[in-house]
Design brief:
mainly alpha
């Protein structure tokens, strides 16, 4: 399948919805990760500590590392990654809550729905 016209680069999109049932544990783990980062300047460390203490979503952003997702996948090298987190209102039964709604995926060339679970 790999031809000179086929790109070797793949964009992998992952969307997760997490329920945080122990804010203190998440915040504590984020603070520990920040304190272990020997390369972080003190001014950035103070800002990061404040951010994760005030916002659980920010704390999760410090704990989730895209490299951890693909670091041991054979035959791939992570070239670029970005991620963000935000607090949301989540109702899995709401008709307007659909993870696939705006992702640009859904149908293949034959009009058949694609899903990977």
């Amino acid at each position: 399948m790999s031809t000179p016209e086929t790109s070797r680069f793949v964009r992998l999109r992952v969307e997760l919805v997490l329920e945080v049932d122990d804010v203190e544990a998440v915040t504590g783990a984020a603070l520990a990760r920040i304190s272990e980062d020997e390369e972080m300047p003190d001014t950035e460390r103070a800002h990061a500590e404040s951010a994760v203490t005030e916002d659980t979503a920010e704390a999760l952003a410090y704990l989730v590392d895209p490299f951890d997702l693909v670091g041991e996948v054979p035959g791939v090298e992570l070239h670029q990654a970005s991620w963000s987190s935000e607090l949301i209102d989540y109702d899995p039964d709401a008709p307007d809550w659909d993870l696939d709604e705006d992702d640009g995926f859904g149908d293949d060339e034959d009009g058949e729905e694609q899903s990977v679970r």
